[in-house]
């Protein structure tokens, strides 16, 4: 699994929660059919917004975050985002009460 962290820097105060929710809900239409995208978490912070994306494979993440992606995002938000990709082998899921390695439950230590 691949985790992508996208950060969009902002000048000024944290964006209004209701506006962020409205814009985020509207943008879900864009991400609903992205191949390999399992989840997207929308972020709203003091100095940045962005998202955490969970992809099935690195190839699928790199297909979405292609060479023109940053230009597209800059056109949407007026500022260039940063992107960091992480390999993610181990997940602790407290809601399900399990630990997974490469998507498969393993005995918790």
TrEMBL record:
InterPro entries: Dimeric_a/b-barrel (IPR011008). This is Monooxygenase. It comes from Sneathiella marina. The lineage of its organism: Bacteria, Pseudomonadati, Pseudomonadota, Alphaproteobacteria, Sneathiellales.
